[in-house]
Every structure is written in structure tokens, then in C-alpha cells.
């Protein structure tokens, strides 16, 4: 990601592929969202998954050792965990070193940089392997201008983190394109960047420059073009609200979709914080978003109903839509409800 001729070029990632997805010792699906996202949206790039003893999460791929995955053609071990703080714990180190020695490059979207670990750096140098850190913003990001840009923008926001903002943005962008609409998915997190091949790792940008980074992520575009921007965190998350607000102000969305997971009642990763209601999220997003786009509006709700069967999901979608007065849909299940949500986005 570089700055060229006075404008930023987010660049295109060229990563060694295909991948073996490393799940570490994860026991919470919400913290394995990188592996799950790659398995769901880039399955042709994923050979299998590799978990340590105690790992109870699966991305639904064959469980392989690094040696087995290497025999099947895998070239990179991708850290598929996005834990609190983006740390690489000591208990992973032997497995990461083994992967380097087996001939893998390492790819990470964690806050902790692979290159900062002397043992990994030494083994990588000895074996001629690469340590690739995705979560590295470009140099020289300016502060935001607040200038209204051409084109149209949709942002996914959430009642919490890790509940479907990326999936929703990917699904909406794909559906827009299927309707013949000029649209781009704009990635703002490590997994989305790996899927899209470019983007802005918003949660690594210094706070003064967050809104400026979001402006770079979604530049001026033709009047009928849609940028569908992957949201981050939640305005109600005590740790991540700053990133969410900077992304909201800088992306200047014309439309937003609220993402929520059936059954979740507590903010993920912190104790003692209850999930906000969907109306609270709509009200707060409009109130704060009006700073840079006075015409901001909510189009509807994206419901993560993965814990329900089809019949129960349909009942819940219809109930919530009647209660809130907005279109509600699960973008993974698609169907008529999703078509109604798309119509509301475009109306």
C-alpha cells in the first residue's frame, strides 16, 4: 500500500497460495473468524485446517498436519485466529516454527507482528521462508477532510464485533453485481483484505487518522457506483468503538445495514456489558453519522441466524421485521427476504 501522484494506491496483495488455516487452540468460533471467513469466501484457496490440542473450533475443512498439507500443495500457513488484542501466544510458537521448517511461508493478520519474534525471524532466514504481516497500514495517511465524495456508499455496522459485518458486506456486494450494479467490496480488516486482495487494516491506524484512512478506502467514484464497506467493531463496544466511529465518519455512508446475531446478549470479549438493542444501534449510527453525511439512513437488518434451522430462522426474520419495521434477512440463507433488504438498500 503506497502513495502515488498525490493519491493512495491500496495495492494488491500477492500471497503464497493455497493455504493451510491455523486454528491454534481456539475454543470460541468468534475468535476464529479469519479461518471461517477464508473457508467460506475463498474455499478454492484453502487446502485444510490445522489445530493444536485443545482446539474445538473447525472451519469445516480436512484436518491436516503441516506435512500432510504440504504434500497436498499448501504453500502458506495462515493464522486463522483473531483473538482479543491480536496476540501470538507462546504455546503456538513450536507449531509456527515447525511450519517454517516444513517449507511454509507464514501469513498473519494479528496485531503482534511475526517479524517481531526473534525465533521466527531466525528460522525464516535459515529456511528462506517469508513472514507476511497483513495488518500493516500504509505510511503517510492524512487526517480526514470531511469532503463529500462522489459515488454511493454502504457500511455494515453491528450490535457487537464478530457477528457478520464482513459476510454481510461480501454478500451485498456480490448481489449488487448480480443485479448488474457497479459495486466493490471494500475490506477494512485482515480477513477481508486476504479475500479481496486489498484494503485498509483500520484497527491498526493511529486514531487521529482513522477517518482519513476510511476516506482513502472509499475514494471518489462514478455517481452510480456503490462501495460496500466492511464494518469493524461496534459503536457500543468498550474496546473497539473508536475504530467503528472513525470508519463511520470517514466512509460517509449513504446507507447502513445493522448486523446482529440471534441469541447473543453480551458484548464479546469483555465482562459486564450487555448488547445494545438494534433500535439503539440505528439511533446512535444516524446521530453520529450525520456529522459527515446528513442524509445517512438505515436500510435494514442483517441477521446471523446460524444457530437456527431454516424454519426457525424464517420465523425469527419475519418476527423481527414486523417488530422493527425494517427489512430483515440472513445474507447467507438469501431468499426473498434478502431481495427485500437489497431493494431497501437501493431505494
Could you provide a short overview of the structure?
The chain has 347 residues and is α/β, with parallel strands linked by helices.
Structure description:
It is a single chain. By secondary structure, this protein is an alpha/beta fold. It folds into 2 domains: 2-133, Rossmann fold, CATH 3.40.50.720; 152-346, 3-Layer(aba) Sandwich (Rossmann fold), CATH 3.40.50.300. It is built from 11 helices and 13 strands. It has helices at residues 33-41, 66-71, 93-101, 118-127, 165-178, 190-196, 210-217, 241-251, 278-289, 310-324, 336-346, and strands at 2-4, 7-9, 19-24, 46-51, 76-79, 105-108, 131-133, 152-158, 183-186, 226-229, 255-261, 297-304, 328-329. It has a 6-stranded parallel beta sheet with strand order 9-10-8-11-12-13, sandwiched between helices. The protein has a 5-stranded parallel beta sheet with strand order 4-3-5-6-7, with helices on both faces. α1 (33-41) links the parallel β3 (19-24) and β4. α1 runs parallel beside α6 (190-196) and α7 crosses α8. The longest helix is centred in the C-terminal third of the chain and has 15 residues, at 310-324. The protein is globular, with a radius of gyration of 20 Å. Mean pLDDT is 94; it is low at 1-7.
What are the key terms here?
alpha/beta, disordered N terminus, five-stranded parallel β-sheet, 32% helix, 347 residues, 18% strand, 2 domains, six-stranded parallel β-sheet, Rossmann fold
Strand content: 15-25%
In whole angstroms, the N-to-C terminal distance is 35 Å
Per the principal axes of the C-alpha atoms, what is the gross shape?
Answer: globular
What is the H/E string?
A: EEEHEHEHEHEEHEHHEHEHEHEH
The strands making up the biggest β-sheet line up spatially as 9-10-8-11-12-13
Amino acid at each position: 500500500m503506497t502513495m502515488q501522484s498525490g493519491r493512495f494506491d491500496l495495492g494488491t496483495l500477492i500471497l503464497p497460495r493455497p493455504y493451510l488455516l491455523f486454528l491454534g487452540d481456539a475454543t470460541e468460533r468468534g475468535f476464529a473468524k479469519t479461518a471461517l471467513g477464508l473457508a467460506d469466501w475463498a474455499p478454492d484457496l484453502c487446502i485444510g485446517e490445522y489445530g493444536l490440542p485443545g482446539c474445538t473450533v473447525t472451519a469445516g475443512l480436512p484436518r491436516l498436519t503441516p506435512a500432510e498439507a504440504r504434500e497436498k500443495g499448501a504453500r502458506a500457513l495462515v493464522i486463522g485466529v483473531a483473538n482479543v488484542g491480536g496476540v501470538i501466544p507462546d504455546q503456538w510458537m513450536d507449531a509456527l516454527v515447525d511450519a517454517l521448517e516444513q517449507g511454509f511461508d507464514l501469513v498473519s493478520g494479528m496485531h503482534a507482528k511475526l517479524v517481531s519474534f526473534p525465533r521466527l525471524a531466525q528460522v525464516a532466514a535459515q529456511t528462506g521462508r517469508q513472514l507476511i504481516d497483513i495488518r500493516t497500514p500504509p505510511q503517510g495517511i492524512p487526517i480526514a477532510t470531511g469532503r463529500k465524495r462522489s459515488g454511493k456508499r454502504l457500511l455494515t455496522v453491528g450490535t457487537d464485533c464478530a457477528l457478520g459485518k464482513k459476510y454481510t458486506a461480501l454478500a451485498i456486494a456480490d448481489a449488487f453485481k448480480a443485479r448488474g450494479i457497479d459495486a466493490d467490496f471494500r475490506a477494512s480488516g485482515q480477513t477481508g483484505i486476504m479475500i479481496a486482495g486489498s484494503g485498509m487494516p483500520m484497527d491498526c491506524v493511529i486514531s487521529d487518522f482513522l477517518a482519513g484512512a476510511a476516506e482513502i478506502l472509499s475514494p471518489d467514484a462514478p455517481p452510480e457506483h456503490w462501495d460496500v464497506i466492511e464494518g469493524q467493531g461496534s459503536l457500543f463496544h468498550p474496546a473497539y468503538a473508536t475504530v467503528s466511529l472513525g470508519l463511520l465518519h470517514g466512509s460517509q455512508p449513504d446507507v447502513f445495514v445493522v448486523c446482529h446475531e440471534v441469541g447473543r446478549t453480551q458484548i464479546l470479549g469483555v465482562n459486564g456489558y450487555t448488547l445494545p438493542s438494534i433500535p439503539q444501534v440505528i439511533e446512535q449510527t444516524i446521530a453520529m453519522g450525520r456529522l459527515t453525511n446528513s442524509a445517512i439512513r438505515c436500510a435494514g437488518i442483517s441477521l446471523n441466524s446460524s444457530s437456527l434451522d431454516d424454519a426457525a430462522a424464517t420465523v425469527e426474520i419475519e418476527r423481527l421485521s414486523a417488530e422493527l419495521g425494517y427489512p430483515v434477512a440472513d445474507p447467507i440463507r438469501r431468499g426473498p427476504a434478502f431481495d427485500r433488504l437489497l431493494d431497501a438498500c437501493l431505494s
